[in-house]
Each structure stands twice: as structure tokens, then as C-alpha cells.
Amino acid sequence: MTDALVDLAHAVALGSIDDEDHHAVAELINSPDTLLRTEFQREVDRTHAALAQLTPEVAPPPRLRAALLAAIAAE
Fold it and tell me: Has the keyword Transcription been applied to this entry (predicted)?
């Protein structure tokens, strides 16, 4: 897999892809190259797993939700 595809897999795992990246992912998913699709998905999964180790799930304080809803309502 090329460095560009590894970077794309990382962007997918981070949820930070733009329209151009969406197009590239769609082409990859529709590619007849089964091995490439599998390697790409494996890299996305590995990146998700690594991120899960780095970012513990912590529930935000209840007051944060109330503040966000109030800010949204104010707009």
C-alpha cells in the first residue's frame, strides 16, 4: 500500500476526510483489487485501535451538555 493510501486510511480513522478524500475512498472501496481493499481496511482498523488506546472515554460533566444546548438555542 502506498504512503498516500496509508495517510488516507489514517484520515478515515480520524474522521477528517474532505470531499476529495471521500472520492478516493469510494474509488478504493469499488476497486476490484481485493487485497488493496483489505489492507486499507486493516490500516483503518489499526489506527482506530491505536486511537482508542490514546484517548480514554471520559463522560463530559452534565453542565457541559447544558451549556452547549443553551449556546445552540441562543443562536
Answer: yes
- Is the separation of the CB atoms in 9 and 40 below 8 Å? yes
Would you list the domain boundaries of the chain? 3-74
Q: What is the CA radius of gyration of the chain?
A: 17
H helix intervals, the chain = 3-14, 19-29, 34-54, 62-74
Place of cell 493510501: 5
**Cα(72)–Cα(3) distance, rounded to whole angstroms?**
40
Return averaged pLDDT per consecutive 10 residues of the chain, 75 residues in all.
91 90 90 94 94 82 90 90
Using DSSP's 3-state secondary structure scheme, residue 64 falls into helix
pTM (2 decimals)?
0.68
